[in-house]
Amino acid sequence: MKSHVWRPLYVVIAFVVALLVFRFFYVPNDFGSGKRGFMYSFHRKSNEMEWKNQAAKYGTSGRERMHEYCSACHSNVVTVRTEKLHGIIPCEDCHGPAMNHPEKPEKLNIDRSRELCLRCHTSLPYTTSERHRIPGINPKTHNTGAECVKCHNPHNPSMEGMK
Amino acid sequence: MERREFLKKCILVVAGASVPISALTLIDPKKVLAANPDIQWAFLVDTNKCVGCGFCVKACKTENDVPFDANVSRTWVERYVYTKDDKRYVDSPKAALYGYTEARVDLGRGEFKEIDPKNVGKAFFVPKLCNHCSSPACTQVCPVGATYKTDDGVVLVDRTWCIGCGYCIMACPYGARFFHPVAKVVDKCTFCYHRLSKGLESACVNACPFKARRMGNIHDPEDPITKIIMNERVGVLKDEFGTKPQAFYIGLAQEVR
Amino acid sequence: MVEQVAQHIVVHGEAWTIKELFTLPNEYIYWSIQIVMYPFMTGLVAGAFVLSSLYHVFGVEKLKEIARFSLVFSFALLPVAMMPLMLHLQQPFRGIHVLMTPHFTSAISAFGIVFLTYASIVASEIWLVYRKYFVQTAQGLMAMQNRGTIDSFRMMVFQALTLGAWDISHEAVEKDHKACKIMAGIGIPVACFLHGYAGFIFGSVKANALWMTPLMPVIFICSAVVSGVALCILTYVIVQEIRKYMARSKMARWARDADAPGAEELEAIKHTEVMISSNYLLYFMIAAMTLEILDLIFRGYTQVKSWDILREVIMERDFFKIFVMQYGIGNALPFLMMILPGRTVRRTTIATILVLFGVFMMRYNVVIGGQAFSLSFSGFMDYHLPIFPHDVETFKEGLFGALTVIATPFVLFYFINMFIPAFLKEESTH
To answer: Rounded to an integer, what distance in angstroms lies between the CA atom of residue B12 and that of residue B9?
Structure first.
């Protein structure tokens, strides 16, 4: 390769070598493909553990274990609920995540807003959906502005439980 | 794949060889596999049961640090309302984060459609999320290998490596991906991978009071979800793209895209 | 108690997207003006190079002047091709990852390798064409008695540019010419690849009903060549006008040389180059237009599931942008202007401006148009280009970001021209 015309190529090769050296230090060495091959699972393997190690916020798992989890301290409320319709609603849906409760947070949120109840109890005229089987009201006409919990007990929502 | 088959056969042979001849019974492969769990997570949505309460969206955003105020979500619920005069209305106000508290349909640009209750034909709710496809178009197009499918079937994004080009967002036929406003990289449903590995259910599955959302291991034939998928009539979204989605739907109407 | 009202978090894309009817919650126009600029700029790069290669490879003698110019201008355009991407990325400092862990199943990963290959080829070709000039200039500066600081700096730069190859004998320069021809020959398919892959980026997205077509890479290549040739013709005419003025007023150093070209000679050169280049422009325009119309006809004929929403976007909402601005003003009008008898330089120049506008609108209509409809096929998204930025994001992905990208090649060209002069009176390099 005596001819001088090859010199630009040497410059390019030097650049590529520099790039590869940089790459050697920069790229983590656990980059590779998983079971789904290069196309679908080329990644940095240690990322999987990073995702697994993320802290969970909601504590309960499954409706059945929810009652064990909360009834340890709140047995009065939980007992009433399990017999009534709201027994299917996980406590954390309304009260927020409770994984480390009562260490952190010490107190869970008690949401008394109308909007919380209206999620299910706004009456919608959909006969082909389960929504139809939930007793509902028209929020624009039914005691507008008032908190639902003023009259209805969310832990015992039957008519007998009315205040 | 061949190696896996070979290993399975080896296990069978070893298991068979260790059984005394007098007590020879047929080895049940299911039992063998149950001892070596081979997990592929799959999701089952029952649109017949969904009431549009939106607790799943609230739980997901809380669990996974997606700001409530941001107009993006890892999961959402769509409402379909068909009127008797052959019109179809679809909406998903704030991704159903606050549920559906109005009968009027959100048409965007601040406009709403009031529908006469007597005019309502069929109406239902469809929860949606990342389908964690078997052949995901999104992982195929990532230029740097920041998004990938794990061995147990979950599609994840490496937050330290994503360059934020948005190609995966364009490639996803289901609209499951978005730019996280705080992390400034791509985000999407992870099946709550951090909860699965701790033996907990995903936040949305945990939150749903009506069992409209469920998850299971599709490689475990004893899994109740697998039994439903194998034995009942289920559908998937947009299967024409060949992505092989792993979120299955009961009660999917053909107009749902 | 005063409540802190937090400012509403605006997610990326929300600032310039107006959503209508039913769109999925995560859908926004994520690929906005910078993604329109990117294929436009790389198209100019590829087209400029093809024009230069028409001379170097195919020996179209009459194109010598504009060929050298477009080679240097293509080099000025190269770094600018990266700018829109850096401005678009949510993590621009991680842009290097495309070179670090390229995922080759993704068309975008080709960017790193193809871009560097192409840059190497253009740089090599420029070196081969200008080596004699570098050597002569370096030697002249080295021989100077009282060198000032600027001249010392210039001397060092020119010395470095020679890459140590000081032999400018006739045989050595002949070797340069031969190698240059080979470089230009290799460069053409690489230039096609540089832009073909950009078309592939869009054409392979099966999720997008407008983008998905096998014709996309070819359409992009043809319109890239169109835009590159048009820009070179336009810039060439403008620069020649400037040089004519300088020749008459004897302003620049070169104009005071005894054998410097006069204004009339420059005018004659300009006329020849423009006439011949514009023929090639016409050929590629025909190819580009044919493919685009073909794609449209196929869609309207086959009427697959996406047709209803696409028809509403193409024929109604974007009708003006597509048929009036892109096909009408940007394609048909300049085409007519150039094929009608009595074509003049002035008419051709105006036509090239319209052609560039048409190519830009084509990129715009593909990128933005593909995001104008929802995946649900039941809703739309309107794009509003941010004019006055109120934060970093609306600057980067707004009008001023786009203008920065357009202006930069000209700025770069000015500086590059100081060391690699686009106009050099010399014997034929072919």
So the answer is: 5
